């Protein structure tokens, strides 16, 4: 085999087609949008990974992030996309992540009997799931990203998060309040949220960690390898500037390389979301003043 189109993606990803996230020391491919509805030359929008943001994927407008996926939590297969196309027919999309010593990639398949289905990065900057409707001879849009306005990158400002349920809305993380309350009441969230109580820094007591389940972790993390959950907690606890951490074990049985994923954050937390019980969600441990609790065991429900 000298050449195959699946190795050179343009704006479309088809079932069985690999979307390489990382290959050795190189970043993987990206989908690139058309320039316009009738112009297939490369447009401004792209979707894929780069090594600086591994293990997560971005949708960019040029170099500006528009939307960000969750950092990979180690799931192998998920089937969270299910669409009812008619009264008697539905489509289930199965997304798999494969990671070995040299390569990481995603690939998707669809349920038996499903209509022709594709992922497309549109010229207007949306990643869509489309299915061919034979009755109308047209592509029907089953879903798209960003889902809603507060899902746009950084829309809720520093230390704010996009709560998808029951109605998508910007909220402040626990222990924070709107930096400018009036602007929040008028629907402007760019200034984000500020702490109600300052951290004690390197003080021996006063700070603790609040466990927030079902979260989309912030961007701008530092990736620390070869850590247990307890070791990840200790990594953040002994760092005076660390404000949060998250942990996952990404190691598969086929891999001989340690793939534990300890993420730690310093400074403001940007592009956070609440996802609920999704296999892509994380438990975020947030450092707060006045919590006298161990880093791993301190767990309270998110308000």
Explained architecture:
This protein has 303 residues and is mainly beta. It folds into two domains: 5-145, Orthogonal Prism (Agglutinin, subunit A); 149-289, no CATH class. The chain is 5% helix and 44% strand. It is built from two helices and 23 strands. The chain is globular and about 65 Å long.
Brief summary:
The chain is mainly beta. It is built from 2 helices and 23 strands. Mean pLDDT is 84; it is low at 253-257 and 293-303.
Task: Describe the protein's topology.
Elements: E1 12-13, E2 19-23, E3 26-27, E4 30-36, E5 39-48, E6 58-61, E7 64-68, E8 77-84, E9 90-99, E10 103-110, E11 117-121, E12 127-133, E13 138-145, E14 160-163, E15 169-172, E16 176-178, H1 181-185, E17 193-195, E18 207-216, E19 222-224, H2 229-237, E20 242-249, E21 260-266, E22 272-274, E23 282-289
Parallel strand pairs: 14-22
Antiparallel strand pairs: 1-11, 2-3, 2-10, 4-5, 5-6, 6-7, 8-9, 9-10, 11-12, 12-13, 14-15, 16-17, 18-22, 18-23, 19-21, 20-21, 20-23
InterPro entries: Bulb-type_lectin_dom, Bulb-type_lectin_dom_sf, Pan_app, S_locus_glycoprot_dom
Main location: membrane
Pfam families: B_lectin, PAN_2, S_locus_glycop
Q: Major β-sheet, in short?
A: 8 strands, mixed
- Mean pLDDT, all residues: 84
Order of helices and strands: EEEEEEEEEEEEEEEEHEEEHEEEE
Tell me the count of domains.
2
Distance between the termini: 56 Å
Low-confidence stretches: 253-257, 293-303
Give the CATH architecture of the largest domain: Orthogonal Prism
- Rg measurement, Å: 21 Å
What is the strand content?
35-45%
How do the strands of the widest beta sheet line up side by side?
15-14-22-18-23-20-21-19
The class by helix and strand makeup works out as mainly beta
**Helix count, per DSSP?**
2
Query: Shape from CA axes?
Result: globular
Q: Which CATH class of the largest domain?
A: Mainly Beta
Helix content: under 10%
User: What is the CATH third-level topology name of the largest domain?
Assistant: Agglutinin, subunit A
Quantity of strands, as a count: 23
């Amino acid at each position: 085999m000298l050449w195959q189109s699946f190795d050179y993606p343009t704006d479309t990803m088809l079932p069985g087609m690999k979307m390489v996230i990382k290959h050795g020391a190189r970043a993987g491919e990206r989908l690139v949008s058309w320039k316009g509805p009738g112009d297939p030359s490369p447009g401004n929008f792209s979707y894929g990974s780069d090594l600086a943001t591994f293990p997560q994927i971005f949708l960019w407008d040029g170099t500006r992030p528009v939307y960000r996926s969750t950092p990979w939590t180690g799931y192998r297969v998920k089937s969270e996309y299910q669409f009812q196309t008619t009264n008697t027919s539905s489509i289930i999309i199965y997304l798999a992540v494969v990671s070995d010593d040299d390569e990481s990639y995603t690939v998707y398949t669809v349920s038996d009997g499903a209509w022709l289905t594709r992922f497309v990065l549109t010229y207007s900057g949306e990643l869509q799931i489309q299915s061919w409707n034979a009755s109308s001879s047209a592509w029907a849009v089953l879903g798209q990203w960003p889902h809603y306005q507060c899902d746009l990158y950084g829309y809720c400002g520093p230390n704010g998060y996009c709560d998808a349920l029951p109605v998508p809305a910007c909220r402040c993380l626990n222990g924070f309040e709107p930096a400018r309350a009036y602007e929040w009441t008028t629907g402007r969230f760019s200034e984000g949220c500020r702490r109600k109580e300052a951290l004690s820094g390197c003080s021996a007591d006063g700070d603790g960690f609040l466990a927030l389940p079902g979260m989309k972790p912030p961007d701008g993390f530092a990736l620390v390898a070869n850590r247990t959950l307890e070791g990840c907690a200790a990594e953040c606890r002994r760092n005076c500037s660390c404000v949060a951490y998250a942990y996952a074990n990404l190691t598969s049985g086929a891999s001989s390389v340690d793939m534990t994923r300890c993420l730690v954050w310093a400074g403001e937390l940007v592009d956070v979301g609440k996802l609920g019980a999704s296999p892509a969600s994380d438990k975020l441990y947030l450092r707060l003043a006045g919590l006298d609790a161990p880093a791993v065991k301190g767990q309270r429900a998110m308000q």
